[in-house]
Amino acid sequence: MRPTLRLVPVCLTLFSATAAMADVTSEDVWNDMLRMSEGFGQSVTADLRRDGDTLIAENITFAFDNEEVGSGVETTIARMDFTNLNDGSVRISMPAPLVVTVTPGEDGALVTNTVMHTTVQISGDMIAAGDPDALRYSLDAGSIHMENRPVDGQVDPVGVIFTVDMEDVVSTWTSVQNGEQVSGDYAMTSSAVIYRGESIGDNGFRYDVAGQNYETKGSYAHELGEDDQSFENILATLNAEMFRTVEANTFTLNFDGDRRAKIIGTSGLSRYDASIQDGQIDYSASTVDTVVEVSSPDFPLPDAGGSLARLDMAMSMPVTPAESPAPLDMRIAIEDLSVTDSIWSMFDPSGTLSRDPATVIIDVSAMARIPEGMMTPASPPVLPEMPEISEVTLNDLTVKLAGAMIEGTGSATSQGEINGMPNMVGALDLKLTNVTTLIDQLAGMGLLPMEQAGMAQMMIGMLARPGATPGEMVAHIERTADGQILSNGMPLPF
Question: How distant, in Å, are the alpha carbons of 41, 370, 387 from that of 367?
Fold first, then answer.
Protein backbone atom coordinates (compact mmCIF):
# COMPACT_ATOMS: atom_id res chain seq x y z
CA MET A 1 0.00 0.00 0.00
CA ARG A 2 1.49 3.34 -1.02
CA PRO A 3 -0.90 6.25 -0.34
CA THR A 4 -0.27 9.68 -1.84
CA LEU A 5 -1.90 12.31 0.37
CA ARG A 6 -1.26 15.78 1.80
CA LEU A 7 0.60 16.36 5.09
CA VAL A 8 1.10 19.23 7.55
CA PRO A 9 4.80 20.17 7.98
CA VAL A 10 6.38 17.06 9.39
CA CYS A 11 8.12 18.19 12.56
CA LEU A 12 4.81 19.72 13.62
CA THR A 13 3.05 16.41 13.05
CA LEU A 14 5.56 14.28 14.91
CA PHE A 15 4.85 15.99 18.22
CA SER A 16 1.20 16.29 17.71
CA ALA A 17 -3.09 16.14 19.55
CA THR A 18 -7.03 16.50 22.83
CA ALA A 19 -8.09 14.33 25.34
CA ALA A 20 -11.25 12.33 25.28
CA MET A 21 -9.67 9.06 26.36
CA ALA A 22 -10.80 6.17 24.12
CA ASP A 23 -9.09 3.29 22.35
CA VAL A 24 -7.19 4.34 19.25
CA THR A 25 -5.40 2.14 16.76
CA SER A 26 -2.18 2.57 14.87
CA GLU A 27 -4.24 3.15 11.72
CA ASP A 28 -6.12 5.97 13.50
CA VAL A 29 -2.82 7.70 14.29
CA TRP A 30 -1.46 7.30 10.76
CA ASN A 31 -4.72 8.57 9.28
CA ASP A 32 -4.69 11.54 11.65
CA MET A 33 -1.33 12.56 10.24
CA LEU A 34 -2.76 12.29 6.74
CA ARG A 35 -5.95 14.23 7.57
CA MET A 36 -3.89 17.03 9.04
CA SER A 37 -2.04 17.30 5.75
CA GLU A 38 -5.05 18.14 3.61
CA GLY A 39 -4.81 21.89 3.97
CA PHE A 40 -1.04 22.30 3.70
CA GLY A 41 -0.21 21.43 0.10
CA GLN A 42 2.17 18.52 0.70
CA SER A 43 2.04 15.02 -0.79
CA VAL A 44 3.01 11.86 1.07
CA THR A 45 4.17 8.47 -0.17
CA ALA A 46 4.89 5.51 2.09
CA ASP A 47 5.06 1.72 2.13
CA LEU A 48 2.73 0.35 4.83
CA ARG A 49 2.75 -3.15 6.30
CA ARG A 50 1.57 -4.74 9.53
CA ASP A 51 3.61 -6.92 11.91
CA GLY A 52 1.35 -8.12 14.72
CA ASP A 53 0.27 -5.12 16.80
CA THR A 54 2.55 -2.77 14.87
CA LEU A 55 1.81 -0.78 11.73
CA ILE A 56 5.14 -0.12 10.00
CA ALA A 57 5.52 2.82 7.61
CA GLU A 58 8.70 2.69 5.52
CA ASN A 59 10.26 4.86 2.84
CA ILE A 60 8.10 7.81 3.90
CA THR A 61 8.41 10.92 1.74
CA PHE A 62 6.69 14.24 2.37
CA ALA A 63 7.03 16.61 -0.58
CA PHE A 64 6.07 20.21 -1.21
CA ASP A 65 6.80 21.83 -4.57
CA ASN A 66 6.30 25.54 -5.18
CA GLU A 67 5.76 25.65 -8.92
CA GLU A 68 5.71 29.46 -8.89
CA VAL A 69 9.42 29.65 -8.06
CA GLY A 70 10.61 26.11 -8.78
CA SER A 71 11.62 25.44 -5.18
CA GLY A 72 10.84 22.39 -3.13
CA VAL A 73 11.02 20.83 0.33
CA GLU A 74 11.25 17.06 0.69
CA THR A 75 11.26 15.24 4.01
CA THR A 76 12.10 11.56 4.22
CA ILE A 77 11.91 9.07 7.10
CA ALA A 78 13.19 5.56 6.56
CA ARG A 79 10.80 4.00 9.08
CA MET A 80 8.15 4.79 11.68
CA ASP A 81 6.48 2.13 13.89
CA PHE A 82 2.94 2.58 15.29
CA THR A 83 2.31 -0.05 17.99
CA ASN A 84 -1.06 -0.71 19.67
CA LEU A 85 -0.67 -0.82 23.47
CA ASN A 86 -2.88 -2.61 26.00
CA ASP A 87 -4.21 0.67 27.48
CA GLY A 88 -5.75 1.74 24.16
CA SER A 89 -2.93 4.11 23.20
CA VAL A 90 -0.35 3.86 20.41
CA ARG A 91 3.44 4.04 20.75
CA ILE A 92 5.22 5.85 17.89
CA SER A 93 8.89 5.01 17.33
CA MET A 94 11.22 6.58 14.80
CA PRO A 95 14.45 4.56 14.80
CA ALA A 96 15.89 6.39 11.78
CA PRO A 97 16.44 10.15 11.53
CA LEU A 98 14.17 12.55 9.70
CA VAL A 99 15.92 14.22 6.75
CA VAL A 100 14.69 17.48 5.20
CA THR A 101 16.08 18.55 1.83
CA VAL A 102 15.41 22.13 0.72
CA THR A 103 15.90 22.78 -2.99
CA PRO A 104 16.22 26.47 -3.86
CA GLY A 105 14.15 28.18 -6.51
CA GLU A 106 15.36 29.29 -9.90
CA ASP A 107 17.46 32.43 -10.26
CA GLY A 108 17.83 32.91 -6.52
CA ALA A 109 14.12 32.99 -5.68
CA LEU A 110 15.01 31.78 -2.17
CA VAL A 111 17.67 33.12 0.20
CA THR A 112 20.26 30.58 -0.92
CA ASN A 113 20.94 28.68 -4.14
CA THR A 114 22.32 25.78 -2.13
CA VAL A 115 20.51 22.48 -1.60
CA MET A 116 20.38 22.09 2.19
CA HIS A 117 19.98 18.97 4.31
CA THR A 118 18.52 19.10 7.82
CA THR A 119 18.69 15.88 9.84
CA VAL A 120 16.56 15.41 12.97
CA GLN A 121 17.02 12.45 15.32
CA ILE A 122 14.44 11.94 18.09
CA SER A 123 15.17 9.50 20.91
CA GLY A 124 12.40 8.21 23.10
CA ASP A 125 8.95 7.02 22.12
CA MET A 126 5.93 9.19 21.47
CA ILE A 127 2.52 8.09 22.75
CA ALA A 128 -0.78 8.89 21.00
CA ALA A 129 -4.02 8.60 22.95
CA GLY A 130 -7.52 10.03 23.06
CA ASP A 131 -10.11 9.82 20.30
CA PRO A 132 -9.46 9.25 16.58
CA ASP A 133 -10.66 12.81 15.84
CA ALA A 134 -9.01 14.34 18.90
CA LEU A 135 -5.58 12.89 19.64
CA ARG A 136 -2.99 13.83 22.22
CA TYR A 137 0.63 13.01 21.45
CA SER A 138 3.34 13.08 24.12
CA LEU A 139 7.10 12.63 24.41
CA ASP A 140 8.54 12.22 27.90
CA ALA A 141 12.24 12.48 28.80
CA GLY A 142 13.40 12.22 25.22
CA SER A 143 16.15 14.05 23.39
CA ILE A 144 16.36 15.76 20.01
CA HIS A 145 19.40 16.28 17.80
CA MET A 146 19.24 18.42 14.65
CA GLU A 147 21.99 19.18 12.14
CA ASN A 148 21.85 21.48 9.13
CA ARG A 149 24.45 21.49 6.35
CA PRO A 150 24.72 21.87 2.56
CA VAL A 151 24.71 18.66 0.55
CA ASP A 152 28.13 17.34 -0.41
CA GLY A 153 29.93 19.38 -3.03
CA GLN A 154 27.90 22.57 -2.60
CA VAL A 155 28.88 25.81 -0.89
CA ASP A 156 26.34 27.62 1.23
CA PRO A 157 26.71 31.42 0.95
CA VAL A 158 25.77 31.63 4.62
CA GLY A 159 28.70 29.29 5.17
CA VAL A 160 27.68 27.72 8.50
CA ILE A 161 26.99 24.16 9.63
CA PHE A 162 24.88 24.24 12.78
CA THR A 163 23.48 21.72 15.25
CA VAL A 164 20.83 21.87 17.97
CA ASP A 165 20.64 19.47 20.91
CA MET A 166 17.79 19.32 23.43
CA GLU A 167 17.84 17.18 26.57
CA ASP A 168 15.09 15.93 28.92
CA VAL A 169 12.39 16.87 26.44
CA VAL A 170 8.80 16.68 27.63
CA SER A 171 6.28 17.51 24.92
CA THR A 172 2.57 17.25 24.21
CA TRP A 173 0.64 18.16 21.09
CA THR A 174 -3.08 17.99 20.40
CA SER A 175 -4.67 17.42 17.00
CA VAL A 176 -8.40 17.99 16.65
CA GLN A 177 -10.41 17.40 13.47
CA ASN A 178 -13.69 19.36 13.45
CA GLY A 179 -15.41 19.30 10.09
CA GLU A 180 -13.25 21.22 7.63
CA GLN A 181 -10.90 22.60 10.30
CA VAL A 182 -7.85 21.08 11.96
CA SER A 183 -6.63 22.70 15.16
CA GLY A 184 -4.52 21.98 18.17
CA ASP A 185 -2.09 23.22 20.78
CA TYR A 186 1.37 22.18 21.86
CA ALA A 187 3.82 22.54 24.72
CA MET A 188 7.46 21.52 25.12
CA THR A 189 10.03 21.89 27.86
CA SER A 190 13.71 21.00 27.87
CA SER A 191 16.22 21.27 30.70
CA ALA A 192 18.92 22.39 28.27
CA VAL A 193 19.19 23.42 24.64
CA ILE A 194 22.60 23.77 22.97
CA TYR A 195 23.24 25.48 19.63
CA ARG A 196 26.58 24.95 17.91
CA GLY A 197 27.82 26.23 14.59
CA GLU A 198 30.98 26.49 12.54
CA SER A 199 31.81 28.19 9.29
CA ILE A 200 32.57 26.39 6.05
CA GLY A 201 35.78 27.70 4.53
CA ASP A 202 38.70 29.72 5.79
CA ASN A 203 37.12 32.42 7.96
CA GLY A 204 37.25 30.20 11.06
CA PHE A 205 34.04 31.17 12.83
CA ARG A 206 32.58 28.99 15.60
CA TYR A 207 29.85 29.53 18.15
CA ASP A 208 28.27 27.71 21.09
CA VAL A 209 25.10 28.86 22.84
CA ALA A 210 23.65 26.96 25.81
CA GLY A 211 20.21 27.79 27.21
CA GLN A 212 18.70 26.57 30.47
CA ASN A 213 15.06 25.62 31.07
CA TYR A 214 13.74 26.05 27.57
CA GLU A 215 9.94 26.24 27.28
CA THR A 216 7.66 26.75 24.29
CA LYS A 217 3.91 26.52 23.76
CA GLY A 218 1.32 27.59 21.24
CA SER A 219 -1.75 26.74 19.20
CA TYR A 220 -2.88 26.57 15.58
CA ALA A 221 -6.03 26.32 13.45
CA HIS A 222 -6.32 25.87 9.70
CA GLU A 223 -9.14 25.28 7.24
CA LEU A 224 -8.88 22.02 5.30
CA GLY A 225 -9.98 21.43 1.75
CA GLU A 226 -8.96 24.83 0.41
CA ASP A 227 -8.64 24.68 -3.37
CA ASP A 228 -6.30 27.68 -3.39
CA GLN A 229 -2.96 26.48 -1.98
CA SER A 230 -1.05 29.66 -2.83
CA PHE A 231 1.32 31.07 -0.25
CA GLU A 232 -0.89 34.14 0.21
CA ASN A 233 -4.02 32.03 0.81
CA ILE A 234 -2.26 29.86 3.39
CA LEU A 235 -1.24 33.04 5.25
CA ALA A 236 -4.83 34.30 5.06
CA THR A 237 -6.42 31.12 6.47
CA LEU A 238 -3.85 30.04 9.08
CA ASN A 239 -4.25 31.20 12.69
CA ALA A 240 -1.38 30.27 15.01
CA GLU A 241 0.61 31.56 17.95
CA MET A 242 3.86 30.56 19.65
CA PHE A 243 5.54 31.61 22.91
CA ARG A 244 9.09 30.63 23.84
CA THR A 245 11.30 31.41 26.85
CA VAL A 246 14.81 30.47 27.96
CA GLU A 247 15.73 31.27 31.54
CA ALA A 248 19.44 31.91 30.99
CA ASN A 249 22.06 31.63 28.26
CA THR A 250 25.81 31.29 28.04
CA PHE A 251 27.58 31.77 24.72
CA THR A 252 31.02 31.67 23.14
CA LEU A 253 32.03 33.06 19.73
CA ASN A 254 35.44 32.25 18.26
CA PHE A 255 37.00 33.96 15.25
CA ASP A 256 40.05 32.00 14.06
CA GLY A 257 40.71 33.64 10.70
CA ASP A 258 43.15 36.41 9.89
CA ARG A 259 42.08 38.35 12.98
CA ARG A 260 41.61 36.07 15.96
CA ALA A 261 39.17 36.94 18.73
CA LYS A 262 36.98 35.30 21.35
CA ILE A 263 33.74 36.59 22.84
CA ILE A 264 32.17 34.93 25.87
CA GLY A 265 29.02 36.07 27.60
CA THR A 266 25.86 35.41 29.53
CA SER A 267 22.30 36.68 29.37
CA GLY A 268 19.19 36.39 31.50
CA LEU A 269 15.62 35.60 30.54
CA SER A 270 15.02 35.56 26.79
CA ARG A 271 11.56 35.56 25.25
CA TYR A 272 10.23 35.12 21.72
CA ASP A 273 6.56 35.42 20.76
CA ALA A 274 5.01 35.12 17.30
CA SER A 275 1.50 34.83 15.93
CA ILE A 276 -0.49 35.02 12.73
CA GLN A 277 -4.17 35.86 12.99
CA ASP A 278 -6.47 36.79 10.10
CA GLY A 279 -3.58 37.67 7.81
CA GLN A 280 -1.68 39.75 10.41
CA ILE A 281 1.74 38.67 11.73
CA ASP A 282 2.96 39.79 15.17
CA TYR A 283 6.49 39.13 16.39
CA SER A 284 8.42 40.16 19.48
CA ALA A 285 11.72 39.15 21.08
CA SER A 286 13.57 40.32 24.15
CA THR A 287 16.52 39.49 26.34
CA VAL A 288 17.86 41.02 29.55
CA ASP A 289 21.10 41.31 31.51
CA THR A 290 23.60 40.51 28.75
CA VAL A 291 27.29 40.66 29.70
CA VAL A 292 30.18 39.99 27.31
CA GLU A 293 33.97 39.78 27.54
CA VAL A 294 36.22 40.14 24.49
CA SER A 295 39.79 38.90 24.09
CA SER A 296 42.21 38.67 21.18
CA PRO A 297 45.85 37.60 20.99
CA ASP A 298 46.27 39.88 17.96
CA PHE A 299 44.94 42.95 19.75
CA PRO A 300 45.55 42.63 23.50
CA LEU A 301 43.22 44.86 25.49
CA PRO A 302 42.67 44.07 29.17
CA ASP A 303 39.19 44.09 30.63
CA ALA A 304 37.46 44.56 27.27
CA GLY A 305 33.73 43.94 27.26
CA GLY A 306 30.34 45.44 27.79
CA SER A 307 26.82 44.93 29.08
CA LEU A 308 23.27 45.49 27.89
CA ALA A 309 20.39 45.78 30.33
CA ARG A 310 17.66 44.99 27.81
CA LEU A 311 17.11 44.39 24.11
CA ASP A 312 13.55 44.51 22.75
CA MET A 313 12.32 44.03 19.18
CA ALA A 314 8.72 43.89 18.02
CA MET A 315 6.94 44.02 14.69
CA SER A 316 3.36 43.73 13.46
CA MET A 317 2.41 43.71 9.79
CA PRO A 318 -0.32 42.55 7.43
CA VAL A 319 0.71 39.74 5.08
CA THR A 320 -2.37 39.37 2.91
CA PRO A 321 -3.95 41.78 0.40
CA ALA A 322 -6.96 43.71 1.69
CA GLU A 323 -9.15 46.63 0.67
CA SER A 324 -8.56 48.56 3.89
CA PRO A 325 -5.28 49.36 5.70
CA ALA A 326 -4.06 47.29 8.66
CA PRO A 327 -1.49 48.00 11.42
CA LEU A 328 2.18 48.04 10.44
CA ASP A 329 4.22 48.59 13.60
CA MET A 330 7.90 48.34 14.53
CA ARG A 331 9.78 48.86 17.77
CA ILE A 332 13.42 48.37 18.73
CA ALA A 333 14.87 49.26 22.11
CA ILE A 334 18.51 48.98 23.15
CA GLU A 335 18.56 49.99 26.80
CA ASP A 336 21.57 50.84 28.96
CA LEU A 337 24.42 49.69 26.73
CA SER A 338 27.79 50.06 28.45
CA VAL A 339 31.39 49.26 27.53
CA THR A 340 34.34 48.90 29.84
CA ASP A 341 36.81 51.71 30.54
CA SER A 342 39.51 49.98 28.52
CA ILE A 343 37.39 50.39 25.38
CA TRP A 344 36.54 54.00 26.22
CA SER A 345 40.25 54.75 26.67
CA MET A 346 40.96 53.75 23.07
CA PHE A 347 39.32 56.95 21.77
CA ASP A 348 38.81 59.03 24.93
CA PRO A 349 41.82 58.47 27.21
CA SER A 350 41.30 61.77 29.04
CA GLY A 351 37.70 61.01 29.99
CA THR A 352 36.22 64.02 28.20
CA LEU A 353 32.99 62.28 27.26
CA SER A 354 30.29 61.08 29.64
CA ARG A 355 30.43 57.31 30.05
CA ASP A 356 26.83 56.88 31.10
CA PRO A 357 25.05 53.90 29.48
CA ALA A 358 23.64 54.49 26.00
CA THR A 359 20.02 53.90 24.98
CA VAL A 360 18.31 53.85 21.58
CA ILE A 361 14.53 53.47 21.24
CA ILE A 362 12.63 53.68 17.95
CA ASP A 363 8.88 53.05 18.09
CA VAL A 364 6.86 53.57 14.90
CA SER A 365 3.29 52.60 14.03
CA ALA A 366 1.50 52.94 10.71
CA MET A 367 -1.52 51.85 8.74
CA ALA A 368 -0.72 50.09 5.48
CA ARG A 369 -2.35 48.07 2.74
CA ILE A 370 -0.54 45.09 1.20
CA PRO A 371 -0.81 44.98 -2.63
CA GLU A 372 -1.59 41.78 -4.51
CA GLY A 373 1.42 39.49 -4.93
CA MET A 374 3.70 41.25 -2.46
CA MET A 375 4.13 38.16 -0.23
CA THR A 376 4.27 35.60 -3.06
CA PRO A 377 7.78 34.41 -4.07
CA ALA A 378 8.50 34.83 -7.78
CA SER A 379 10.98 33.32 -10.20
CA PRO A 380 12.90 35.11 -11.45
CA PRO A 381 12.78 37.36 -8.37
CA VAL A 382 11.11 40.71 -8.94
CA LEU A 383 10.97 43.81 -6.79
CA PRO A 384 7.48 43.70 -5.24
CA GLU A 385 5.23 46.67 -4.84
CA MET A 386 5.73 48.41 -1.52
CA PRO A 387 2.94 48.60 1.09
CA GLU A 388 0.63 51.56 0.64
CA ILE A 389 1.10 53.71 3.76
CA SER A 390 -1.94 55.79 4.74
CA GLU A 391 -0.67 57.13 8.06
CA VAL A 392 2.42 56.88 10.23
CA THR A 393 3.15 57.82 13.85
CA LEU A 394 6.49 58.16 15.58
CA ASN A 395 5.52 57.12 19.09
CA ASP A 396 9.00 57.40 20.56
CA LEU A 397 12.47 58.34 19.38
CA THR A 398 15.04 58.34 22.15
CA VAL A 399 18.80 58.42 21.67
CA LYS A 400 21.07 58.81 24.71
CA LEU A 401 24.82 58.77 24.12
CA ALA A 402 27.86 60.33 25.80
CA GLY A 403 25.82 62.80 27.84
CA ALA A 404 23.59 63.97 24.96
CA MET A 405 19.99 63.04 24.24
CA ILE A 406 17.58 63.34 21.32
CA GLU A 407 13.84 62.83 21.89
CA GLY A 408 11.14 62.90 19.25
CA THR A 409 7.47 62.22 18.48
CA GLY A 410 5.34 62.93 15.44
CA SER A 411 2.71 61.79 12.97
CA ALA A 412 1.68 62.19 9.34
CA THR A 413 -1.17 61.13 7.07
CA SER A 414 -1.25 60.57 3.32
CA GLN A 415 -3.06 63.22 1.29
CA GLY A 416 -2.97 61.51 -2.09
CA GLU A 417 0.17 61.18 -4.23
CA ILE A 418 2.79 63.42 -5.80
CA ASN A 419 4.77 61.89 -8.69
CA GLY A 420 3.75 58.41 -7.58
CA MET A 421 4.87 58.96 -3.99
CA PRO A 422 2.52 59.41 -1.01
CA ASN A 423 1.96 63.06 -0.10
CA MET A 424 2.54 62.84 3.66
CA VAL A 425 1.29 65.77 5.73
CA GLY A 426 2.17 66.04 9.41
CA ALA A 427 4.61 67.22 12.04
CA LEU A 428 7.68 66.09 13.98
CA ASP A 429 8.62 67.42 17.43
CA LEU A 430 12.25 67.12 18.53
CA LYS A 431 14.10 67.96 21.73
CA LEU A 432 17.90 67.97 21.73
CA THR A 433 19.74 68.08 25.06
CA ASN A 434 23.51 68.75 25.17
CA VAL A 435 23.85 67.77 21.50
CA THR A 436 25.75 70.92 20.56
CA THR A 437 28.09 70.32 23.52
CA LEU A 438 28.78 66.77 22.34
CA ILE A 439 29.55 68.02 18.82
CA ASP A 440 32.07 70.50 20.22
CA GLN A 441 33.65 67.77 22.36
CA LEU A 442 34.01 65.38 19.42
CA ALA A 443 35.53 68.11 17.27
CA GLY A 444 37.95 69.11 20.05
CA MET A 445 39.07 65.48 20.40
CA GLY A 446 39.67 65.18 16.66
CA LEU A 447 36.97 62.53 16.27
CA LEU A 448 34.81 64.81 14.10
CA PRO A 449 36.31 67.08 11.41
CA MET A 450 35.82 70.76 12.15
CA GLU A 451 33.97 71.35 8.85
CA GLN A 452 31.45 68.63 9.61
CA ALA A 453 31.03 69.89 13.16
CA GLY A 454 30.38 73.40 11.86
CA MET A 455 27.78 72.15 9.37
CA ALA A 456 26.02 70.15 12.10
CA GLN A 457 25.89 73.17 14.41
CA MET A 458 24.56 75.32 11.57
CA MET A 459 21.79 72.83 10.75
CA ILE A 460 20.73 72.65 14.40
CA GLY A 461 20.65 76.46 14.50
CA MET A 462 18.41 76.57 11.42
CA LEU A 463 15.98 73.89 12.58
CA ALA A 464 15.82 74.39 16.36
CA ARG A 465 15.46 77.14 18.92
CA PRO A 466 16.58 77.27 22.57
CA GLY A 467 14.40 75.32 24.96
CA ALA A 468 13.38 75.84 28.56
CA THR A 469 16.66 74.70 30.16
CA PRO A 470 20.35 75.33 29.36
CA GLY A 471 21.70 73.02 26.67
CA GLU A 472 18.19 72.26 25.35
CA MET A 473 17.09 72.90 21.75
CA VAL A 474 13.58 72.20 20.44
CA ALA A 475 12.12 72.00 16.94
CA HIS A 476 8.59 71.63 15.55
CA ILE A 477 9.01 70.54 11.93
CA GLU A 478 5.93 70.20 9.77
CA ARG A 479 5.03 69.46 6.16
CA THR A 480 1.92 71.20 4.91
CA ALA A 481 -0.62 70.01 2.35
CA ASP A 482 0.86 72.33 -0.29
CA GLY A 483 4.33 70.81 0.14
CA GLN A 484 5.98 73.43 2.37
CA ILE A 485 8.38 72.39 5.12
CA LEU A 486 8.30 74.62 8.20
CA SER A 487 10.48 74.64 11.30
CA ASN A 488 9.01 76.33 14.34
CA GLY A 489 6.50 77.98 12.02
CA MET A 490 9.10 79.43 9.65
CA PRO A 491 9.83 78.20 6.11
CA LEU A 492 13.19 76.51 5.72
CA PRO A 493 15.64 78.35 3.41
CA PHE A 494 16.20 75.30 1.21
Answer: 32, 10, 9
